[in-house]
Amino acid sequence: MEIALIKLLLAHILGDFFLQPDKWVVEKERIKLRSGKLYLHIALHIALVFIVFLSFDVWKQALIIGVSHYMIDAAKLLFQKANTKKVWFFADQALHIAVIIICWLSFYEGASIDFGFVQNPKVWLYVFGGLLLTSPTAIIIKVVITRFIPSRSSISLQNAGKFIGILERLLIYIFILTNHLEAVGFLLAAKSIFRFGDLKEGNELKLTEYVLIGTLLSFGIAVAVSLGVTYIHI
C-alpha cells in the first residue's frame, strides 16, 4: 500500500474524529451552512494534508479534498433527518474515502520528505490502525447499536463505556501485532468476569444482550483491523 494513501487517510480521521469537537457538530446541524464551524472544519482538513506531507507541493490534493469535503458535508447537513443520521454517517465517510482514493490515484506525484522513521510505511500503517480503533470505531459502534440501548438508564461514569472500549481495542491491537494472541483471550475473559456480577444482579435480558452486542462488535472490529495491518505487506 502506498504511503501517500495512508497519510491522506490519516489526515482525514484526524480532521473528522479527533479535531472536531461535539459542539462543532451540534452547531453545524443547528444552523447548517451558516455555521462558521463548517468552514473552520474544511480549512482544518486542507491544513492537515499539508501537515502530514510536510510539503506545499500537494496543494492540488489539498484543494480537491477541501472542496469535495465541503460539498459532501453540505449535502449531509441539508438533507439528513433524525431517522437517517446513521445512513448519512456511513455515506458521508464512504464518499470522503472515495475522493481520497481517487485523488491519490490520479494526482499524487510523490511529494514527501526523506528522513528517518517518518518515511517507514509500517510506522504510518501502525499509527493509522491504532487511531482507527479509538474514536472512529467508538462512533461507528455507537451508531450501529443505538437501536439496542435499553430503555432503563444505568448508573455509570460519563463516557466510561467509550473509553473502556477504546482501551480494550488498543490492547487487542498491541497483542496481535506482537503475536500474543493468548492475551486477547485473557482480556475477553477478564472483561466477562467484571461484567458478570453487574449483569447477574441486574437480571435484565435486554441489558445483557446490549452489552454482548457491543463487546463482540468491539472485539470483532479490533481483531479485523489488527489482522489486516499484520497481513498488509508494504
Termini separation (Å)?
Answer: 6 Å
Distinct helical segment count: 10
Q: How many structural domains can be distinguished in the coordinates?
A: 2
**What is the alpha-carbon Rg in Å?**
20 Å
Low-confidence stretches: 110-115
Structural class: mainly alpha
Q: Would you count the extended β strands for me? A: 0
Question: How would you describe the oligomerization state of the chains in this entry?
Answer: single chain
Question: Approximately how much helix is present in the residues?
Answer: over 70%
Report the portion of residues in β strands: under 5%
* Averaged pLDDT: 84
Shape type = flat
How would you describe this protein?
The protein is an all-alpha fold and 234 residues long. It has 2 domains: 3-114, no CATH class; 144-231. 76% of the residues lie in helices and 0% in strands. The termini are close together. InterPro entries: Phage_phiKZ_Orf197. This is DUF3307 domain-containing protein. Keywords: Membrane, Transmembrane, Transmembrane helix. It comes from Pedobacter xixiisoli.
In short:
This protein is an all-alpha fold.
Keywords:
single chain, 234 residues, 2 domains, 76% helix, 0% strand, flat, DUF3307 domain-containing protein, membrane, transmembrane, transmembrane helix
